[in-house]
Amino acid sequence: MKIDFNRELVNFDGVTLNDTITGKPITLLIVSTNALLADRRIAGNKKLEDARLAERIYKKKVLDLTVREIADLCDSIKETSPPLLVLRACEMLDGGE
What pTM was computed for the model? Predict the structure, then answer.
């Protein structure tokens, strides 16, 4: 499925969420790469696979992911992000708004 990682996450009112430090919009790219590069207790091979996916996302911004890659990415986001970011990011990854 083709995913546009430049999309901005929004709150319940549809207003773009901004980073509290930089003030910049929070995008699916930021949430995804941060989740994939987070220091989680996973096997070394999985860490390498996640880092490679994070690099692909960062470089291309829009790319096709397999169903497995989407599921794994959503699981990583669930492990590392606050609830609203999980909700919005996983909705986007699952093809919703």
Answer: 0.91
